[in-house]
């Protein structure tokens, strides 16, 4: 009887051991499954991160790529129309140079600002009909739909040339399009020290724009006592520039409006009513 009881007890122990081993195996399998699930998630995240990085690198590369183009027309010193090939088709775009601002010459609601025609004529001489390259920054367009870019002619960036020659000031600094702003400021500082063009009249070019009244005041100290209220900004403190227009249509296309007598581009044949202002 005792032997039978001992035998039965051994069988129970064997069953218990077997159940314990089975439980260990099951627990191990579950643990392994959980580990696999957890390890899969970060792997997928890492893969997504790599794709994002590759995508970002591709975008950066495209951003820095210079686009071949041809200048069709110069609107004014910092705005041009260009053509380029896209997908086998020739397209035309209006571009606005980044981080620079030349005096206004084409706003029909404002008089032509001092040095505006000088900047515009300089741009026309340098760029009209020329092959150029465009470099974009982060944001591609402004609120008017114009393409924002840095423009290269030969081995020179035209944005910098405007600053070097005192035809433009550093302006419209809107992140993230600030890639060259520091070096632009250095170039501007040198033009200021030399007193070139817009910097030849103290306080004309300022942080908030161009102040025509300062130019007039510097050229005509007695202006305050004058009864004439109509300013003549372009006739003061500017180098003489010979400009000839055959018609007002041609003048407007070149960015010239309300050309006053004595200003570059004025002629009696364009002043139909003889009031001293052509192409009104």
Summarize the structure.
The chain has 280 residues and is of the alpha+beta class. It is 39% helix and 19% strand. Among the domains are: 66-214, OB fold (Dihydrolipoamide Acetyltransferase, E2P) (Beta Barrel), CATH 2.40.50.90; 242-280, no CATH class.
Task: Give keywords.
two-stranded antiparallel ribbon, 5-stranded mixed barrel, single chain, 280 residues
Shape: globular
CATH topology of the domain at 66-214: OB fold (Dihydrolipoamide Acetyltransferase, E2P)
- Summarize model confidence as the mean pLDDT: 76
Q: Main sheet: which strands, in order across?
A: 1-2-3-6-5
Residue windows where pLDDT falls under 50 for at least 5 positions: 1-6, 29-63, 219-241
Q: Work out the helicity level.
A: 25-40%
Assess the beta-strand content as a share of residues. 15-25%
Number of helices: 6
CATH class descriptor of the domain at 66-214 = Mainly Beta
> In sequence order, what are the helices and strands, one letter per element?
HEEEEHEEEHEHEEHHEE
Structural class: alpha+beta
What is the CA–CA distance across the termini? Answer: 130 Å
């Amino acid at each position: 009887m005792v032997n039978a009881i001992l035998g039965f007890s051994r069988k129970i122990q064997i069953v218990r051991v077997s159940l314990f081993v089975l439980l260990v195996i099951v627990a191990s399998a579950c643990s392994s499954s959980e580990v696999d699930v957890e390890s899969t998630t970060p792997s997928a995240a890492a893969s997504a991160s790599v794709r994002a990085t590759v995508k970002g690198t591709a975008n950066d590369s495209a951003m820095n790529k210079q686009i071949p183009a041809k200048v069709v027309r110069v609107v004014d010193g910092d705005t041009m129309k260009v053509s380029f090939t896209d997908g086998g088709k020739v397209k035309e775009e209006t571009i606005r140079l980044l981080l620079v601002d030349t005096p206004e010459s084409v706003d029909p609601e404002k008089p032509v600002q001092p040095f505006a025609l000088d900047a515009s004529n300089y741009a026309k001489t340098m760029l009209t009909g020329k092959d150029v390259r465009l470099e974009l920054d982060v944001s591609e367009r402004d609120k008017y739909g114009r393409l924002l870019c840095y423009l290269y002619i030969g081995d020179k960036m035209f944005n910098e040339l405007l600053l070097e020659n005192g035809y433009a000031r550093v302006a419209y600094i809107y992140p993230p399009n600030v890639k060259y702003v520091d070096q632009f400021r250095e170039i501007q500082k040198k033009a200021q020290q030399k007193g070139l063009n817009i910097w030849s009249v103290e306080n004309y070019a300022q942080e908030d724009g161009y102040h025509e009244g300062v130019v007039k005041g510097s050229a005509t100290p007695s202006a305050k006592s004058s009864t004439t209220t109509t300013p003549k900004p372009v006739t003061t403190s500017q180098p003489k520039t010979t400009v000839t227009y055959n018609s007002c249509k041609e003048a407007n296309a070149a960015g010239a409006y309300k050309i006053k007598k004595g200003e570059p581009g004025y002629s009696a044949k364009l002043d139909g009513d003889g009031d001293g202002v052509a192409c009104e």
